[in-house]
Design a protein that fits this description.
Layout lengths: L5 H16 L18 H4 L12 H13 L4 E9 L2 E8 L5 H18 L4 E6 L1
Parallel strand pairs: 2-3
Antiparallel strand pairs: 1-2
Helix pairs in contact: 3-4
Length: 125
C-alpha cells in the first residue's frame, strides 16, 4: 500500500517527458536566403548588394529593350516619374488607326510584363 503512489508518479513523469519531445517542427523555422550576405539582399531589395537592384537608367534601358521587340515602332521617349512610366512611341505616319492601336497595345503589354512595378501609360505620336 505504501508503494501505490509510485505508479501515478511514474505515469506523470512519462507523460511530461513525452510532451517535452513533441512540437519541435523544423518546417516552421525560417533561414537566411543563400545569397552570401546572410539574407541581407533578400530582406532589403533596394540595397545595391541585391542582384535585382535597378537604377532608373537600368529601368529605362529595360523598357527600350522591351519596346524594340514590338514591330511598327520607329522611336520612343520614356519618362519615369516615381511609380509611373510615361512612354510616347512614334509610328509610321502611313499607319492606320487600327495599326496604331495594335502597336500601342503591344507596347503596353511588353513594358507592363517587363516592368510590373510601374503604372505604364503609352501614347502614340
Amino acid at each position: 500500500m505504501r508503494r501505490l503512489w509510485i505508479i501515478p508518479l511514474a505515469v506523470g513523469v512519462l507523460c511530461l517527458s513525452a510532451a517535452a519531445c513533441g512540437g519541435n517542427d523544423a518546417s516552421n523555422k525560417q533561414y537566411y536566403g543563400n545569397d552570401g550576405y546572410q539574407g541581407l539582399s533578400n530582406s532589403n531589395p533596394g540595397l545595391p548588394t541585391n542582384p535585382s537592384f535597378h537604377t532608373y537608367n537600368d529601368d529605362v534601358r529595360m523598357i527600350y529593350r522591351a519596346l524594340s521587340e514590338v514591330r511598327g515602332i520607329s522611336g520612343a521617349n520614356v519618362v519615369l516619374n516615381g511609380p509611373n512610366a510615361h512612354i510616347a512611341i512614334r509610328v509610321a505616319e502611313s499607319a492606320t488607326a487600327d495599326e496604331k492601336d495594335r502597336v500601342r497595345t503591344q507596347a503596353y503589354k511588353a513594358v507592363s510584363n517587363m516592368m510590373p512595378r510601374y503604372h505604364v501609360t503609352v501614347t502614340v505620336r
